[in-house]
Amino acid sequence: MLEESIRKKGCSGLPFDIIVAAGQNSAMPHARPTDNKIKAGDLVLIDWGGEAGGYFSDMTRTFLVKGEDISKKQEIYKTVLLANKAAINFVAEGKQAKMVDRTARDIIKNAGYDEFFGHGTGHGVGIDIHELPHISKTGNESIKAGMVFTVEPGIYIPSLGGIRIEDMIAVDKGRCRVLTTIPKELEIIS
After folding, report:
1. Count of structural domains within the chain
2. Could you give the CA distance from residue 21 to residue 62 in angstroms, rounded to a whole number?
3. Domain limits for position 94
């Protein structure tokens, strides 16, 4: 349904297979489909993108299915959301990509989840789905006007599930402009 919807809006192709991962499977950043059914209390991570006019997009949202004892998942979600917002607010022309990563990573580390954040905070998106800049510990690129990249911190705990909040941003007039418009506050679904 998601793929059909984005194609109706003008998407001419997908840069990667849409990821829908629930429960413990959501703790795998590039999960593959399984026969598992979504259950009460599961985290549901959805990562998708599209192509239009020769350019790609990429975003992720995580939802929580209503259930008993979801407070730990809500706490972790708040940490990831705080890391996402802080990194976006830090982005400015002239800053180093690795410092954007550090901004998100420090929040996750200070909350005690550093070992559960194993990928970079983002990547460039344009005519390829992964290009410069590398928003990671080793990203030496300076942020420049016109760059488009993701900010996607995550926490992935194998026994609990994973949370990633991914936005695309563009550096415009020295600051960043968020291109994704889907709300990112935690949505608990029935």
Report:
1. 1
2. 9
3. 2-189
Q: How far apart are CA 124 and CA 64, in angstroms?
A: 28
Q: How far is CA 127 from the centre of its chain?
A: 19
Residues 6+ apart with CB under 8 A from 104: 83, 84, 86, 87, 121, 151, 153
Whether the CA torsion 137, 139, 145, 146 is positive or negative: it is: negative
- Cα 22 to Cα 45, 68, 158, 168: the distances in Å are 6, 16, 12, 23
Spatial separation of the C-alpha atoms in residues 181 and 62, rounded to whole Å: 15
DSSP-based three-state secondary structure for 56: strand
User: And the tokens for 138?
Assistant: 């080793």
**CATH number for position 105:** 3.90.230.10
To the question of pTM greater than 0.85 for the whole model, the response is yes
User: Per residue in 137-186, pLDDT tens?
Assistant: 999 999 999 999 999 999 999 999 999 999 999 999 888 999 999 999 99
| Distance separating alpha carbons of residues 15 and 57, to the nearest angstrom | 8
